[in-house]
Amino acid sequence: MVAKLKKPVDATVVAEHPAKAIEGTAAALFPTLNYDEFTELGRENLSAVVKANEAFSEGIEAIGKEILGYARSSLESASQAAAALLGAKTLDEVVQLNTELAKSSIETMLQRSAKLSELGVSVANETLAPFGGRVEAAIAKLTKQLAA
User: Fold this and answer.
1) Could you say which DSSP state residue 115 is in?
2) 122 and 60 Cβ atoms separated by less than 8 Å
3) pLDDT tens digits along 67-124
């Protein structure tokens, strides 16, 4: 059930006296919370967002490094294979070198894909971890006196 507001909020009141602005809006919905409690809740939530952003940035950097490493190793492998193919003397040798290159490329791709998948899951978990308790804490704080 949503409580109706007693009066509309005046922008000058919000700018000059934020605590008075809450009296007419959020206070109608959550009568037992004061401005300081809302401020603290906002600080805690902002802190969780900052931590999540840091974890996400670090994770994306790790994924980027992994992709760059894979690209480098693929180029090295391809250049070695090209040199070996140029030195091949028979068609059987060319087919064998090409088969080895394809097999090696697929194995490397599968290994790197698994590692990228693990990194992705890790980044998602680390990014969402700071939010884990924030939703419950916000709901508990906002509803603690409504139940009473």
Assistant:
1) H
2) no
3) 999 999 999 998 998 898 888 889 999 999 999 999 999 999 999 999 999 999 999 9
